[in-house]
Amino acid sequence: MEVNLQKFENKNYQEYLEFYNRVHPDNQLGLEVLKETEGRYSAGAFMERYLLYSDNELIAATSLKQDLNKSSVVGIIVNMIIEPEYQHLEKILFTELLKKAQKHKPDYYKTSVRENWQHELDFYLQNGFVEIERMWESWLDLSSFDPKAFDWAEPKALANGISFKTLADFEDNEASQRMIYDLVSELLADVPHGEELEIWPFELWLERFWKGNLRIDESMFLAFDGKQAVGLSMLLKGRAADAMGTGLTGVKKNYRRKGIAQALKLQAAKYALDHGFAKITTSNHSINRPMLSINEAMGFEKEPAWVYLKKEINN
């Protein structure tokens, strides 16, 4: 059977979103977050999405995205979403997708699936992909969260000479941007990853993160030792209207075990509560035990893990 994949256009966003949420009801997407995330590819990276129809009904969607975490090599993230009754087409779709990828001369392919999406997981494993890491996505139900249980954290941090601010306390200028970028770069380099992470250059970070629409200055919480930023917890616009999403949370090595991370997480939870949100989401590498422990103590409940897979190409 031949397939005729149509190039995705802006007019297809709502149709695609409804299709995705129907096929994967356990991983709902919101339009604003989807557009914002994909907008990062306008800054020197490629992304292609294709749609497959049967009798004018969308039955499959595929995509090729450049791996934004690597610049020294070309990695392509491949993805296929298929209506269950049409899963017999996956091999044909996959072959066609890789044909379209060849023009980019990739060094490897990556993909990710939920661990309970057994059919998809088996397909990639059978086609040369190997697992490289797992990420836990967790939810905190704010209706049952008791902030008082963690009131010890901020006094402990204050007793260690730490002060707290939000990004809203600073002017939006290069000095503030550099402060956040330098802190994020240092913290990211110390986060456990399945693979070595390449930090974006400052100008690229500005385009892909700072100029985006997910950041909320009032919910970017910072810890300081004097004038030095030593800790951070980002609370961003979430995938769903009633949820906020956690970005990077971390504390510099020399400032750990002082209650700082817990205090930052508590400030974030109180912000979400005060602004009427029902949930907070977060994602953590399965090997990041310290942060997982903090989230578990706060009551975050794990969803099935995301399994990240990779296929090296011998060019």
Description:
By secondary structure, the chain is an alpha+beta fold. The protein has 2 domains: 101 residues, Gcn5-related N-acetyltransferase (GNAT) (Aminopeptidase); 166 residues, Aminopeptidase, CATH 3.40.630. It has 9 helices and 13 strands. Strands 1, 2, 3, 4, 5, 6, 7, 8, 9, 10, 11, 12 and 13 form a 13-stranded mixed β-sheet that branches. A hairpin with an 8-residue loop joins strand 3 and strand 4. The longest helix has 17 residues. The chain is globular, with a radius of gyration of 21 Å. The model has no long low-confidence stretch (mean pLDDT 91).
Number of helices: 9
Main sheet properties: 13 strands, mixed
Low-confidence stretches: none
User: Could you report the average pLDDT, rounded to the nearest whole number?
Assistant: 91
- Distance N to C terminus: 29 Å
What is the succession of H and E elements? EHHEEEHEHEHEHHEEEHEHEE
Measured as a percent range, the helix fraction is 25-40%
Under CATH at level 1, the class of the largest domain stands as Alpha Beta
Q: Tally the beta strands.
A: 13
The overall number of domains is 2
CATH architectural category of the largest domain: 3-Layer(aba) Sandwich
CATH topology of the largest domain: Aminopeptidase
**Estimated structural class:** alpha+beta
SSE topology:
Blueprint lengths: L5 E2 L5 H11 L7 H9 L7 E8 L2 E10 L8 E8 L7 H12 L6 E7 L3 H9 L3 E12 L11 H7 L2 E5 L7 H17 L11 H9 L9 E6 L2 E10 L5 E9 L8 H15 L4 E7 L3 H10 L2 E2 L3 E7 L3
Parallel strand pairs: 4-5, 10-11
Antiparallel strand pairs: 1-2, 2-3, 3-4, 5-13, 6-11, 6-12, 6-13, 7-8, 8-9, 9-10
Helix pairs in contact: 5-8
